[in-house]
Design goal:
Blueprint: E1 5-10, H1 23-34, E2 38-48, H2 54-59, E3 63-69, E4 72-81, H3 86-108, E5 113-117, H4 119-133, E6 137-141, H5 145-148, H6 153-165, E7 168-171, H7 174-182, E8 191-193, E9 215-220, H8 229-242, E10 246-251, H9 257-266, E11 273-277, H10 281-290, E12 293-296, H11 305-312, E13 317-320, E14 334-337, H12 342-354, H13 361-372, H14 374-388
Parallel strand pairs: 1-2, 1-5, 2-4, 5-6, 6-7, 7-8, 9-10, 9-12, 10-11, 12-13, 13-14
Antiparallel strand pairs: 3-4
Helix pairs in contact: 1-14, 3-4, 4-6, 8-12, 11-13, 13-14
Amino acid sequence: MDRTHVLILPSWYLTRQQPWHGIFFREQALALHRSGMRVGLIYPELRSLGALRLGALRDGWFRTVLENEEGLATLRLRGWDLFPRISLHANLWIRCAIRLADEYAARFGKPDLIHAHSALWGGVAGARWSFLRGVPLVITEHSSGFAQGLVKPWQRRLAREAFEQAGAVVAVSSALAGQLADQGLVRPGKCAVIPNTVDTSFFTLPPVPRARPPFRILCVCYMKPLKGVDILLRAFVEVSRRIPEAELEIAGDGPEREKLEKLAGNLRLGSRVKFLGTLDRGKVREAMWRSHVLALASFYETFGVVLIEAMATGLPVVATRCGGPEETVCPETGRLVPVRDEAALAGAIVEVHDCYGQFEPSRIRRHAEDHFGGATIASRLKAVYEKVRPVSTHPE
């Protein structure tokens, strides 16, 4: 029986130093693998020279490493980012990705298609390899950089060329698909919408029902201005006035952490707000299990993976209407509020508290499984692959 053979190329990916960075790419690849497809993954792991040490130098001097990740053949090229300028870094990354794709094909056979995640730089590298080797290309776009105006003109030109080379383009939300079309990056009608997936075998209902009090609010994010944690802290002032037993836990780190801790002090929130720092995946799940609502106050999200992870544990969510959440949150799973609206955010959290019995954990989890589970997303991606891959002539 013939099976589609797909090679995955993410633009960022988990490493030993950042073991959860881009983990949703691996979860999607594993979902495809479990659905019966042949799947491999390549990634140029180029580290900053700031992390250069003698032992690390020997380990990562442009050395190719093959790993088996739960049956997923993963080929990495470990090296150093020798060029601080973006254009030089991009050129090095792309050349390393093409080298990896050729090595993968030599080891495992030429794939039926290559699926790159985000145009910069996986999509650009995938487009060049697609052209050189005659392999169909699919690009899934995840990045918020286009909407935020963070992409330079020369980068936009390369991204547009990559999208044109692709047989299919996918966006993780309708909002992102519309922005790509509005900005002339993708021809109208070419971009399909397929959301990210959630590992429902890991993010499960808690082993024991969530206990109250306290009423615990959880935020999980990288602390940068875009995430709106300052808005959440100010909203929590009103929440704590209306829900005396409320507590707020903030998981993650980032450039804004010190500023946000100072803000929490200035707001006199005291021990009711806890900054947990960076948590591994297991600790994030434990935080979700002991919480009663997850709050995300972002100014923009192309999707918002943490929302579906929380829902898979049966946790209701409160999020802003900032792009992706509009397509993941519904009345039975949580509430949506305007961006930068402290009063609305506080009101929605209080509403979840007051109507908590309406948010049935098993129904919330079922929504996550039905819409974002691995089998569902794998089936939708298979349909895209079938449209772009040539008819195979080799038997399995």
